[in-house]
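Hello again,

I reread your note about wanting to compare the complex against the isolated chains. To keep things tidy I'm splitting this into two emails, and this first one only covers the full assembly. Below are the input lines as submitted, including protein chains and any nucleic acid or small-molecule components. They are followed by the predicted structure of everything together. The single-chain runs will come separately.
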Amino acid sequence: MAVAGTSGTGTRSTGSMVAAASTNNVTSFQRRGPRASGADSGCSRLVSIAGTRRSVRNGQLLVSTGLPALDQFLGGGLAVGTVLLIEEDKYNIYSPLLFNYFLAEGIVSGHALLVASAKEDPADILQKLPAPLIDHSYKKECDEDICGHKMESDIKMKIAWRYQLFPKMEGRPVLSSGFGHDYDISKRIPQELIETSKWHGFFLPEKISSTFNVESCSLTSGYMKLLQFIQNIIYEEGFDGSNPQKKQKNILRIGIQNLGSPLWGDDICCAENCDASHSLTKFLYILRALLRTSLSACIITVPTHLIQNKAVIARVTNLSDTVVGLESFIGSEKETNPLYKDYHGLIHIRQIPRLNNLIYDISDVKDLAFKLKKKLFTIEVRENFYV
Amino acid sequence: MAWSWEALWEWNAGKKPAQLRVQGPRPCARLCACAECNRSARFIGCGQRNCACALLPRVPVWWVLPSSLRSIRDSPSSHPGPPCVLELGMFPELNNLLNTTPEGAEQGKLTLLCDAKTDGSFLVHHFLSFYLKANCKVCLVALIQSFSHYNIVGQKLGVSLTAARERGQLVVLEGLKSGVDVFFRPREEPHPLQFLREANAGDLQPLYAFVRDALQPVDSGEAAWRCPVLLVDDLSVLLSLGVGPVAVLDFVHYCRATVCQEWKGNVVCLVHDSGDTEDEESDVLLNGLSHQSHLILRAEGLATGFCKDVHGQLRILWRRPLQPTTHRDRSLTYQYKIQDKSVSFFAKGMSPAVL
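Full-complex prediction:
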């Protein structure tokens, strides 16, 4: 709010603003340093990490969710250090798609992955990720770049890929430095990409021991083990800045599927007044604490339609940062409604966090619908035709 | 009818009146053509010769003034001093509405901030910067966000939390960071957040002990800080972590007894109103706190839904203890819009976007 005064009265007011600011050794015009959560202790300006970008509003570090359309409605992307909660649709058909997009984006950008599931082996989940759309057929000008760089670089790339050559990064092959890619759902991700990526899997039936452990601190043992696993990975791989030998900073993408379902040992979906009703909320709090102090982003899918206690849903929403709800039309009366005939469901963006800011990027559009085409999952603004 | 900049300068004792906030819309918005008024959109009668605001006799200038400035307008020389310090930082408009100044902040009060269907954290930032500017010793129990979040927003509001922490004015308990420590690396000595490790979260006694140690007035001869202030953001997350509502109410009661009664300080806490989600624990907590607080600020989302220009509605309720004059509880309602560095308040239906 700069009142640029040309008259005498105006300059006095700007003078006071500058004076007040300078006494605090802070001006509002200072370029904001990196807000890398947890790594801000003595960390110099972050070199740009592949697959991330800074928000235009407040310089927040963002990662893509895998769907550029969803990124746009979330204010540019998912902030690093936050949780994206997906409220599953009724038959759990479309939420795994968003989950897979998130993970595929991580592989393509070269991020580390941590996949946790109680239902499916993480290795199988990774096999089913969508393949990135190869767009060299559209971008003709990159052909000579690709040929030229393929000869020079040491990276063994078997796929013709549009990428910008970064100054030599040892070790990790950078597949694409862009932000947000398109994926083809009908094809599986190439095996080479999975093999070159760094991923950790947590499959609950393997980790849980056969002996019954006494539940301590009111968390179910599944959640407890998962939290310890995540904390181990963050600490050992140095995502929280604790390992200064790490030359390259990378993002850890955590994906937890079907959190809160009975497969995790939580009966919050089964009964209205369950014994361990604080298990899920405590888990989310500790997870939030872990994420805020490390360079990671997390996606969680929760079957909120099964949770009978509305208070718990409200608490879960409050403890998450970004909340997106999916409502599919399958089996509901909206399936035959002519207003919705072009779409497969609605997307509700229930919450967007205010991080380091009083305001947030909220789009004006509240009416979003999604459609699953043969190759793409699209999100569109729902158009109303008034008869 | 209009007063000049010089008169304003005088009664502000040489301090630069950065902005002159007024309640309500500017009646001469469409009429004033002078550069000063148009540029800031807040001045009433800048005193310039060609300012139309001052010249029109039928414009009811006085009803848009804050009440404190009305007397100034009539007799600028007889007023004892500036009624409100309009510094940048905090939300000066909210200070006007609450009729408080950092210098004249009341003591011994429990202020309850609650939000329903919207995010009321801007109120926490306001009170944090307000009390830091008022030279009070502040203990911030930040359970839901990291310290850097408050710091960066505080810088926008004109206070530096890191500097305040270094000079001892601010003590912060970072719930997220110390929660990880307590959870994964438990130690023997009591920790304010040790209820995270316990199966049946008992009480918040260690947390109260932390607050008490942080805000203990130090008898060091020179009176460093004005009064101790406890700021809790927020109490509803304690319910999510397994602490019972009665334990939370006990904690607030202990803090109030120590900080408000004994040390004549203030307590400010934020609670989420769960609305119609039938959260009994949250209702118990909210009702219990509403009963004990002196001032309630309730931020609500608009009943009609989302609006780009009006982010919500703020209801201010002054609750006075039983007095001989038995005032009825005074209540005001304003709508607000949050901007990058401040929040603007206006009467219902008087949003600048609407007018």
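For quick reference: The first strand of chain A starts at residue 52 and ends at 54.

B.
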